[in-house]
Specification:
Number of helices: 4
Low-confidence stretches: none
Largest sheet: 3 strands, mixed
Mean pLDDT: 85
Distance between the termini: 34 Å
Structural class: alpha+beta
Helix content: 25-40%
Number of strands: 7
Strand order of the largest sheet: 4-7-6
Order of helices and strands: EEHEHEHEHEE
Length: 107
């Protein structure tokens, strides 16, 4: 399928499934991305989950709908391991998670 980008958008391709997502982007986000950090400004947990799935090549399932829409603001370093990032999110958003191999369940 063809995807056309508008200004301030980017395309993200999931390498395992080939799915293409078009999402909003800002220059600041892209500069920070290249600087080795994730910058989340009013991102939902669902959006953050999508970013983490791409970066760490894992599957994340958020089981509660209310958690999917929880907002997070912050900067996380890409060189942190996924466990560290999940711990930070769990303290910030009051969530719990379990991990089995490449699958993470957030509840």
């Amino acid at each position: 399928a063809e995807h056309f980008l508008k200004p301030n958008q980017r395309a993200v391709i999931f390498k395992n499934s080939g799915i293409v997502n078009v999402e909003n982007a800002t220059v600041d986000d892209d500069v920070l991305w290249k600087s080795g950090v994730f910058a989340f400004s009013d991102y939902t947990l669902e959006d953050i989950g999508n970013v983490l799935m791409r970066w760490y090549d894992v599957e994340i399932n958020i089981t509660r709908n209310d958690l999917k829409q929880k907002k997070f603001n912050g900067v996380l370093r890409k060189n942190q391991n996924l466990g560290q990032i999940l711990n930070i999110l769990s303290k910030s958003i009051s969530l719990k998670y379990s991990r089995s191999g490449n699958h993470i369940e957030i509840y």
